[in-house]
Design goal:
By secondary structure, the chain is mainly β. The chain has a single domain, classed as Immunoglobulin-like, CATH 2.60.40. The protein contains no helices and 11 strands. The chain has strands at about 15, 20-30, 35, 40-45, 50, 55-60, 65, 80, 85-90, 100-110, 115-125. The chain has a 5-stranded antiparallel β-sheet, with no helix packed on it. β10 and β11 form a beta hairpin. It is globular. The termini are far apart.
């Protein structure tokens, strides 16, 4: 429905612990006009054609962080439509500074549509120097 808004413009950034770059993050939005329980959402992200392994990623919604490979178990937290969530990846050294093609696919399961549906968005974002 709202595929073109899934990846938030200019949201690619390095993540750090002290002076060390520990990975990267990008903000995502739901492609569905109502919020959903996190257990009803499956997130898949590719960076420069490489699929991000779920065990290396997490999703943060309104300050609560969940491992991506355990998202299906999160039935007590809801992702509101109007709130961006942070998709974070643990990767020592992160990504190179510069342009990266980010592709996100979100599969959502809703009560009135047994198979659910998918939203897909691809954008080229620029990673600037870690601060």
């Amino acid at each position: 429905m709202f595929d073109r808004y899934i990846i938030v413009n200019d949201s690619l950034r390095a993540t750090q612990s002290g002076e060390s770059v520990t990975g990267f993050a990008v903000d995502l939005r739901l492609p569905y006009y109502r919020g959903l329980w996190l257990s009803a959402v499956t997130v898949s992200v590719h960076v420069d054609g490489e699929e991000i392994a779920p065990e290396t990623a997490s999703l943060t919604v309104h300050g609560n962080t969940y491992p991506l490979d355990r998202l299906s178990e999160v039935s007590e937290d809801r992702w509101p439509f109007d709130e961006a969530a942070t998709f974070s990846v643990t990767r020592p050294g992160g990504l190179e500074v510069g342009e990266h093609v980010i592709a996100a696919r979100l599969h959502v399961r809703v009560a009135y549509h047994a198979a659910g549906f998918e939203g897909h968005n691809e954008k080229t974002l620029v990673l600037r120097e870690a601060r």
